[in-house]
């Protein structure tokens, strides 16, 4: 017998079926249990519910014969009417199929107001549960391994595609309807030439010969116009003319004027270009007086070049861009501008150089400072200082002793007014000491005025009497 389950003898299965046929169709849970208990004396044992709540009722039966054998109900057997606790419950329920070596019962659930019946199965085979757990673990591990392998495969494919795109550029910038001209301020053209470039940069040549520099005039203006296009991409090939598109606008587009010298860092200056995404149109011009002074002071010719490039991250799926570097023309600045630049460099600095000195980051001249000699190093020695202190303390007492010998006769027989004056002076000194210790100013002023007035009156009379004595003696 297993806890929570009551066993019905196999010998009474026929009687159980007969009683079930005569039982009423609607019974409560208590009536059903009481009915089973009434069969206990007839080789039946009661059957109790495993769970009983407001929303769910579950009752399981296990049939077991008295000799230890199991009694299995066929799939066509109906559920006993004693377990139909509600009039709306279906009268029958079928067992689960293919439930080998497992105890089978029925369960009653009430997920809704109308109760329903479904098969209820129990498994107590530990090897079966262990095998099921092992199967689940195997499936989980295989799924994880498959996911990791798939991720690695995708990453490897992406890296291979990126490496191929970076290693083999597929897009090239080309110039169409390009024109380079030297014209004056009034618009008259002195030198002009139209040209275009190829997707194969090895076939590109400069519009003007670079071995023969062109001498510029003071009023010349260099003008460059062209339409920028891309070859090697399907998106660019399908467009009419030299349309570029926002996805192919270069991040770097410059016109560079540099000196043809063998220096490690030759003088140069770059002007950025603005490319219209819709048409790829570019226009640029430069007046002679706008050429930087460092370029004018160089003795070698100047080369005008066009640089166009794009970042690989902006290449998209078509591939990377091949940078375009095209020399255009070799120039010599006007002689007057060169002489003026040389004279200005010797006389004064350019505004840029002045700004760098005043506002830029540069080294500060060394500032030397000599600290003064500390007073402790110039003071006399300890012996000299001690001797001076002794002299300073003894000399006043010597003078006091000499004066005391002179006034000693007068001290022996002082007058009454002299004693009053001496007491007034002692009172003033005591008032000063008291003020120094803790008396406030407003507390001390009235006392000072009174004591001072008394001292003045007493002192005047005492001094008059002393004068009379001196005159009498004389």
UniProtKB/TrEMBL annotation:
<keyword id="KW-0812">Transmembrane</keyword>
<keyword id="KW-0472">Membrane</keyword>
<feature type="transmembrane region" description="Helical">
    <location>
        <begin position="143"/>
        <end position="167"/>
    </location>
</feature>
<feature type="transmembrane region" description="Helical">
    <location>
        <begin position="443"/>
        <end position="463"/>
    </location>
</feature>
<feature type="domain" description="Ribophorin II C-terminal">
    <location>
        <begin position="376"/>
        <end position="470"/>
    </location>
</feature>
<protein>
    <recommendedName>
        <fullName>Ribophorin II C-terminal domain-containing protein</fullName>
    </recommendedName>
</protein>
<dbReference type="Pfam" id="PF25147">
    <property type="entry name" value="Ribophorin_II_C"/>
</dbReference>
<feature type="transmembrane region" description="Helical">
    <location>
        <begin position="419"/>
        <end position="437"/>
    </location>
</feature>
<keyword id="KW-1133">Transmembrane helix</keyword>
<feature type="transmembrane region" description="Helical">
    <location>
        <begin position="384"/>
        <end position="407"/>
    </location>
</feature>
<dbReference type="InterPro" id="IPR056790">
    <property type="entry name" value="Ribophorin_II_C"/>
</dbReference>
């Amino acid at each position: 017998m297993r806890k929570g389950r009551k066993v019905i003898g196999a010998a009474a299965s026929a009687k159980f079926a007969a009683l079930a046929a005569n039982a009423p169709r609607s019974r409560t849970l208590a009536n059903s249990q009481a009915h089973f208990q009434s069969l206990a004396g007839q080789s039946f044992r009661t059957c109790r519910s495993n769970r009983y709540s407001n929303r769910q009722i579950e009752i399981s039966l296990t049939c077991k014969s008295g000799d230890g054998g199991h009694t299995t109900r066929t799939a066509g057997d109906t559920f006993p009417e004693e377990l139909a606790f509600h009039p709306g419950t279906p009268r029958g329920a079928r067992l689960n199929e293919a439930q080998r070596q497992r105890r089978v019962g029925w369960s009653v659930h009430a997920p809704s107001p109308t109760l329903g019946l479904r098969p209820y199965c129990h498994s107590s085979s530990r090897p079966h549960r262990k095998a099921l757990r092992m199967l689940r673990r195997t499936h989980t591990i295989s799924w994880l391994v498959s996911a990791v392998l798939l991720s690695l495969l995708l990453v490897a494919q992406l890296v291979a595609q990126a490496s191929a795109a970076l290693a083999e550029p597929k897009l090239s910038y080309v110039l169409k309807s390009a024109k380079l001209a030297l014209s004056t301020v009034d618009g008259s053209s002195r030198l002009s030439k139209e040209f275009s470039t190829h997707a194969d940069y090895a076939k590109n040549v400069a519009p003007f010969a670079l071995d023969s520099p062109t001498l510029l005039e003071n009023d010349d203006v260099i003008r460059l116009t062209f339409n920028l296009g891309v070859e090697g991409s399907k998106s660019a090939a399908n467009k009419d003319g030299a349309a570029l598109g926002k996805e192919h606008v270069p991040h770097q587009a410059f016109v560079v004027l540099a000196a043809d010298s063998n220096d490690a860092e030759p003088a140069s200056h770059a002007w950025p270009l603005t490319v219209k995404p819709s048409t790829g149109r570019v226009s640029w011009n430069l007046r002679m007086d706008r050429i930087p002074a460092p370029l004018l002071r160089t003795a070698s010719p100047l080369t005008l070049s066009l640089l166009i490039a794009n970042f690989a991250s902006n290449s998209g799926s078509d591939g990377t861009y091949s940078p375009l570097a095209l020399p255009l023309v070799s120039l010599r600045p006007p002689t007057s501008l060169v002489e003026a630049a040389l004279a200005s460099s010797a006389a004064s600095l350019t505004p840029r150089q002045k700004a760098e000195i005043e506002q830029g980051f540069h080294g500060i001249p060394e500032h030397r400072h000599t600290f003064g000699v500390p007073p402790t190093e110039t003071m006399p020695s300890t012996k000299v200082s001690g001797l001076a202190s002794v002299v300073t303390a003894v000399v006043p007492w010597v003078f006091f002793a000499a004066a005391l010998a002179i006034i000693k006769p007068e001290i022996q027989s002082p007058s009454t007014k002299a004693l009053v004056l001496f007491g007034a002076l002692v009172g003033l000194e005591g008032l000063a000491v008291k003020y120094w210790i803790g008396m406030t100013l407003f507390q001390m002023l009235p006392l000072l005025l009174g004591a001072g007035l008394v001292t003045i009156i007493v002192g005047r009379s005492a001094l008059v009497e002393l004068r009379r004595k001196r005159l009498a003696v004389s």
